[in-house]
TrEMBL record:
Belongs to the sirtuin family. Class I subfamily. It comes from the Eukaryota. Pfam families: SIR2. Transmembrane segments: none annotated. One of its GO terms (molecular function) is histone deacetylase activity, NAD-dependent. This is NAD-dependent protein deacetylase. It catalyses: N(6)-acetyl-L-lysyl-[protein] + NAD(+) + H2O = 2''-O-acetyl-ADP-D-ribose + nicotinamide + L-lysyl-[protein]. Its EC number is 2.3.1.286. The keyword Zinc applies.
């Protein structure tokens, strides 16, 4: 019996009614958005030309507060507007349709679970989303149309409140920020699971990384991921399917006899997303945007606008002026 057969047999037994799912960036890589940590293809490795103090800095609130430029330089390539749900997202929608999905924790900020048709009340976007935005300093919301323009152009949008001057940040949870209050409430559902499914995550980011450990001993935990993660494999009831998520859910759906239904859900979701595609002008890849920004920083003698502002604040306008490009 293969691992896929084991999981399918559990689901077919009728004893599974409360599947709690945790997903991460790996379920969206085939939609065209790179994850953080995969070697060569992950964002962290590709950010090297930017000479950041450390790769996570670009998503760290302390860094963003004085240097938001790198985040916006690549935001266009990370914004989910053009992304379409994958077959793995459709599998999640199918779990919900079959009343098996008890709750879904997603660490992703691309909203593709929603786009695939998973009901809103079954999803916690644990790390927020791009749907809304506000000033990091005074928390005043910022208009959607202006935010779109800023992302499309790769420029930093600033708060419109007089004398505030804070950079606007999408409501995604940066490193150094707290998760939504709802997380504490929803994580109580984990010990109520009769099966936990974890897909596409390295389980390196707390607190989501601890969720699989909150499943009761004896309750099956299934990992579908390219590599092993967290403490998976330590419990006798663990099932580790080490392959691409889309491949894993395809095989599972085949054995369960769900393949046609899943395929239809996926096609419908893709068609819905295609209908609302917006034209943001010429597309530039993540690497092109990184390259462009790296050159810009180099030409301005490695002093970003954010650093200049910081110098101005701390050392005074005159001194910062000496470091301005071309001086
Ligand atoms: P991560 O640390 O980059 O890990 C991704 C995991 O998925 C790794 O173990 C990979 O081996 C695995 N993986 C990659 N592609 C596939 C695939 N096709 N099939 C199976 N496995 C695959 O990302 P995590 O999600 O664990 O880390 C949490 C971060 C990533 C959260 O803060 C997210 O907001 C953030 N993130 C989100 C997105 C998104 O919204 N799509 C993209 C990039 C990063």
């Amino acid at each position: 019996m293969t691992d896929i057969d084991t999981v399918a047999a559990l689901i077919k037994s009728g004893r599974i009614n409360r599947v709690v799912v945790l997903v991460g960036a790996g379920i969206s890589t085939t939609a065209g958005i790179p994850d953080f940590r995969s070697p060569n293809t992950g964002i962290y490795e590709r950010l090297k030309p930017l000479n950041l103090p450390y790769p996570e800095a670009i998503f760290h609130i302390n860094y963003f507060q004085h240097t938001p430029e790198p985040f916006y330089a690549i935001a266009r390539a990370r914004h989910p507007r053009t992304l379409k749900p994958t077959i793995t997202h459709a599998f999640l929608a199918l779990l919900a349709k079959k009343n098996l999905l008890y709750f879904l924790f997603t660490q992703n900020i691309d909203g593709l679970e929603h786009d695939a048709g998973v009901p809103e009340d079954k999803i916690l976007n644990a790390h927020g989303s791009w749907q809304t935005q506000r000033c990091w300093k005074c928390e005043t919301p910022y208009p959607d149309d202006l935010m779109k323009q800023a992302i499309a152009k790769g420029v930093v949008p600033y708060c419109q409140v007089p004398d505030c001057g804070g950079a606007v940040k999408p409501d995604v949870v940066f490193f150094g920020e707290s998760l939504p209050a709802e997380f504490d409430q929803q994580q109580k559902k984990v010990p109520e699971a009769d099966l936990m499914l974890v897909m596409g995550t390295s389980l390196k980011v707390a607190p989501c990384s601890v969720l699989p450990r909150q499943v009761h001993l004896g309750v099956p935990r299934v990992l579908i991921n390219r590599e092993t993660a967290g403490d998976f494999g330590k419990r006798p009831e663990d099932v580790c399917i080490l392959k691409n998520c889309d491949e894993g859910v395809h095989e599972l759906a085949d054995v369960l006899g769900w393949a046609d239904e899943m395929g239809q859900l996926w096609r419908d979701a893709v068609a819905r997303k295609e209908e609302v595609q917006e034209d943001w002008g010429e597309e530039e890849s993540l690497d092109e945007l990184i390259d462009k920004y790296a050159k810009k920083v180099k030409n301005s003698r490695n002093i970003s606008d954010g650093h200049k502002r910081m110098l101005e604040e701390h050392l005074g306008q005159k001194f910062a002026g000496i470091l301005a490009p071309g001086k």
